[in-house]
Amino acid sequence: MFIPSTIPYISQFYPLGNTPAVSLTRGLPQGIDADILLLGCGDVRNILFTAYSERGFPPRKLDITCCDMETAIIARNVLLFTLLIDGISADNAWDVYFNLRINEDLKTLIKDQAQKLVSLSSSIGQWSEGRYGSVLRFCDSITLQQVRQIWAKYASPQKGGPAFDEDLGRARKLERTLDGLPEGHSKLILTGLRSTAPLSLAPKLASTQEVIEAREVFWKRGNFSRRPEAIPNPIFSETLSPNTYIHYGTDPILGFHLATAMANLAPASPLRPIKEDDDETLNVIRAAKTQFYKWVAAFQEIPENRISLRFTVSDALSFCHGLQAVSASVNLPVNLYRRQLDTTSVEFDPTAYTEVDSAPTRFDVIDTSNLADHLGTLNLLVAATPLLKTLASSTLWVETLLKSEKTRKQQFDALLRGHGPTLSLLLGLSPVDFWTNATSVSCVDELVMNAMYSSSQRQQAHSRLAFKLDRYFSQLKGSAILSVEPHALAKAAFQVYTQLFDNEDPTSLLTASREEAEENIRRHGYPLFHRGSFATLMRHVQTNTSTNWPSFWEQLLQMVDQDDQNQTTLRKLYRQDLGAQLHLHGLYTEPWLRAGVKSNPSLGGFNAWRNIPEVVCITVAVPRKQIDNLYSTDLSKLNAPTLEGVLRSSNPFGWQNMFGNVHCAFGQVETKGNREAEDFSITVRQDPLGWQGESSLIASFHVPSGALQVEPRDAKVGLSIQNTAMNITTFRHMQPTMTVYMTTLSDTSNVFVTKYEPGMSGYPFTSIQTDREAGGSGVQTDAPTTTQIIANFEDNKIKSLCGHVDFSTSQRGKKLLADRASIELRQSSPFSIDIVFGKKLLVCPVSFPTPVLQETAKTRIARTSCYIEVIAPLADPLTSGPLSSFIYPVTLGEESIPIPLNSQQVNLDSLPIVDVDQAHKKDNNWLNILTAHQFSLRERRLRDSAEPTLRMNFKESLFSMFMLASGLQGGNTGLFALQHPKDGNQILIFIRAIRLNGAEGSVVADAAAMPLTRQLIDSGELETFLYVLRELEICAINVNDEELVLWKKVLPALAERCRTWSHGPECEYKKPGATIPLSTEMGKQFMCSCGNGVLPEGFMKLPEWDDAAAKHAVRVAISPTFSVPFVEDIVDTSLLKAQGGIESLQLDKCRNCNATEGKNGGKLLKCSRCREVMYCSYDCQRKDWKKHRMECVPYDVS
Fold it and tell me: Is residue 164 packed enough to be buried (19+ CB in 10 Å), middle (13-18) or exposed (0-12)?
């Protein structure tokens, strides 16, 4: 297994997600077929919402592979999908899937459907040929077999009402126990309010109370109906047991976008909650059901030949590494256990995964849910990155819910266990949001909710991060990979090593304050890494970088051995584990591994093997009474222990070694062959009763063979609890040794030494496969090439990159060097610096895999040796000029299709419309709060500056648009002109509506953009329309040269976000040498014309719009643009607490500095002209007038 073995006595069943649904295709160009991998897939909300979001877009085929380690999750999801394929009504689908208690008709429906599924699933071949096999597929026969067993339980439910009530009662009791609440009290789960974003900040705070009330109704009645039913729903009840509790946070409505229950929606708005003829008491429930019904309808409309859903039951990391094997065309067994407490291995249906038109093993999208919290971000990245397709559009999504650090900025480095940019480069990845520091996704509601908690231990911090392969994110040219000096890499790797295992250094607790110690215990409660995890990480780094690897390993291991001399840490106990894992992963075999192995037949067992391998597997059968003792206290049942293999001297004061990579399962060992023969093997006959049975716990782990020969008969071997602070607190009854079970190597009844793990025919397959050929055409040209990119370290962080450009194959370059032509550097993109000879006699771009800074770059020019090196420091997303316009970057992909790199697609016609009538002005003030938080804390401090940054100007323009389009400040207009002070109006923007975008916790302006190119103006086609506009209320937004260029870069991405049309063969982007934008020069075309005029009927009610203007306008989706909290702080939570929490956001504030009172302590002053905007002083009003004057409309006395 790829993480430490944490074996819980009580497992939590998570049937429903607790974060709002997102579209799985949100980062992909429309109309392109998509292969998607869902790890920790959970419930069906994201698949159904994706179907809804795809409505009206150019059609595509979706192939979605769903992986979850809980069999019941897959079983219930497949059952629902079969019902949807059969045409079940959305109302019945809701009751079947969400309700804990149902009526007799629904019980019969579930029973009949489950019996049908059982009859269709005796083999994977039968299933594939059956009614549902063309759409719903299984990755392997074992998954189908395990799921079928669950269906059989649904078909013959055994649990009655009292037993089910007892199961639910255990879950609520667990909730109270974990939160220290007395009987009859339940936890106030405010994090559920994230589903109401962006309306959790609305003045109607009473409406948010419905979310909390709905959960209580659900748990009390088992559904939301006024006519509660009493029959347990088998797809819940048959999964629960004394060892499996439904998670106490289970709540059907949290996966929906509940802002529609609270917002004032326009009468004709999509997803307006249905209130007629229903028996629901709460509007949030109506909102959730309305959305579910629409999502289901969209899914049922998809033709069966355009969607495939594949399912597997497996640990996500094991499945990913298994897919790597299949992707590498390895036909041998992968020899990986699929999960803990399961003796079956990861397998793939040979029919589906070996044919020409086979199941996908590389993906456009990999979504990891919030597995990072439970498996570790590094482990996920290492496992999943090789499965990404080598395309700029391919994205790996990482989501976290747990708040592990005090600030989000600290949490980014904590996720990667080191300096984020450095680790990303070594992994061959780019954290997209980190480098753009711009997103349409709001975390404002989440941060404010966090501020409402008094205890940091109760906080969550929901975040999503997008990772792309750095070569494709940066459009890196050539095939050079990152080169690193071995000593520098060894130091950086050692720092990662110590951070991965800092829980093995107890000295940090001795010097910490009580609060810090408690935080440390909480953070390290469940370790996420063992030495095998580190080896897997380094194998991935080795694939993505170039160095002198033997030298690297020698130096790294020397540092590890020096660290082992520190008697205060426990890391030295894992030294042999490290050596064994490096060998198993094919990274490095230390001499002592082989030197310590010798055949000695007289000792018997594996000592008699003719060829003893460096590493063997040792299996220990732990008697059930020892396991019962381990979990004999209430606390030990709540907090799962992390178990480790132990090998130690028979002398109590002698040597000891610990091994973290342990696989466990309940069952009995069955042997095959002679122990003294190399082909001796064992299997574990798994006990189907598991925790309810009486079988031993069979634990297996790898050890160096030589370690078993030190004391071949008397050495002790067994299982113990890892010495973490939480384990020491929880398992006091196991102190002082923390030993679960120990016996001697000579105990042949309970100890087995084999070459491979039980049931396996080889060592685990953990090969990392990547494509290094990217970018290189292989064609010989006269152009100079970047042959090497060298990483330069300072303080164990990559501070600069050196691009080595070889001119030896360029006759022109060689001559210019020999002629001593002048050379200067110019930055052409965040990732590229041009070497310019003379007056552009030769321009040679040097590409880097990450943003760099030309301003302080240096050069090494070797005119005789014909090479130039450009040493450029890594850019800073906060201060580097080249990144200032890197907000919504877009590039041209295959067939010149635009690929937005960090703007997310939205289906505008499906989103709810906010009613901006002046009658709702006060209620809509949440929009003011939301858009004001576009500005980070740093930017708010800079607003007093005479020279605001480019991004601040851009955000000010967006703020003005949303305030005027909503009528919250100044007038109320949807007509805007981006006006250049010298050249006049350049772009017209027409905002039709403001729509809620619950998936992003924000809003989006449904708009059309009309570039006023010279060609269009000279044609005279718009003469009458432009004359009409002069008579209307239009807001002129002043933009300087820099901001105008930025808008020309951004608008193509905003058009792609909501594109319902396809790029035709005559698309301007497809012309030779075309770029996106096409041009940034004044008056020239910058967007293609494919989308011109493709607008909903009656898009704008303006004279001459339909006849003259619409055909020159393209639809765009404009969202508020927020800074990224992993880069800088967005909400001043300390100030929020000091000012009284969320209510303080409703206070009037100075438009310029956010002060809540006048400079002298008096009231704020209103702008005398519009009487809307408020200031703390005349000085602030003067500073803000540059922006406010564009929206300031005289107050209408009438």
Answer: buried
Residue with tokens 């002298």: 1160
Task: Please choose, from the candidates 848, 857, 862, 853, the residue with its C-alpha nearest in 3D space to the C-alpha of residue 806.
Answer: 862
Residues forming a β-bridge with 704: 615
Residue 1191, pLDDT score: 61
Q: Which amino acid is at 222?
A: G
CB atoms within 10 A of CB 597: 21
Each as own residue / partner, the long-range contacts of residues 325-334 (CB below 8 Å, 24 or more positions apart, any chain) are: 325/765, 325/767, 326/353, 326/361, 327/361, 327/362, 327/386, 327/387, 327/769, 328/767, 328/769, 330/765, 330/767, 332/761, 332/762, 332/765, 333/760, 333/761, 333/762, 334/764, 334/765
- Whether a cis peptide bond, with omega within 30° of 0, leads into 623 is no
pTM to 2 decimals?
A: 0.94
What does the radius of gyration of the chain's CA atoms come to, in whole angstroms?
31
Q: Give strand ranges (E) for 591-728.
A: 615-622, 642-648, 656-659, 663-672, 681-686, 696-704, 716-721
1104 CB-contact burial (10 Å; exposed 0-12 / middle 13-18 / buried 19+) = middle
Q: Is 666 exposed, middle or buried (0-12, 13-18, 19+ CB in 10 A)?
A: buried
Q: Which residues pair with 1003 in a beta bridge?
A: 996
- How many Cβ atoms from other residues are within 10 Å of residue 6's Cβ? 18
Smallest CA-to-CA distance from 310 within 110, 151, 132, 146 is with: 132
- What is the number of other CB atoms lying within 10 angstroms of the CB of residue 268? 7
Measure the CA–CA gap between 663 and 965, rounded to whole angstroms: 60
Contacts of 580 (CB under 8 A, 6+ apart): 531, 593, 614, 615, 659, 702, 703, 704
What are the tokens at 1164? Answer: 């704020």
β-pairing, 101-102 vs 231-232, is antiparallel
520 pLDDT exceeds 80? no
209-218 contacts, C-beta under 8 A, 24 or more apart: 210/261, 210/282, 210/283, 210/284, 211/253, 211/258, 211/284, 212/188, 213/282, 214/251, 214/253, 214/282, 214/284, 214/285, 215/189, 215/251, 216/186, 217/281, 217/282, 218/100, 218/251, 218/252
Element spanning 49, H or E = helix 45-54
CA distance 750 to 744: 9
pLDDT category at 913 given cuts 50, 70, 90 is very high
Q: How many alpha carbons lie under 13 Å from residue 791 in its C-beta half-sphere?
A: 30
Asked if residue 187 has pLDDT above 60, the reply is: no
Confidence check: pLDDT of 426 > 50: yes
- Longest C-alpha distance within the chain, in Å? 107
Backbone angles phi, psi at 457, to 5 degrees: -70, -20
Q: Is a pLDDT exceeding 60 seen at residue 774?
A: no
Q: How confident is the model at residue 1153 (pLDDT cuts 50, 70, 90)?
A: confident
Is the CB of residue 924 less than 8 Å from the CB of residue 204? no
Contact 96, 102 (CB under 8 A): yes
> For the residues 731-741, what does the mean pLDDT come to?
94
Per the structure block, which two tokens stand in for 273?
Answer: 């909650």
Is the pLDDT reported for residue 277 higher than 80? no
Strand locations in 212-320, DSSP E?
A: 231-232, 244-246, 307-313
Pairwise pLDDT comparison (726 vs 1117), residue with the higher score: 1117
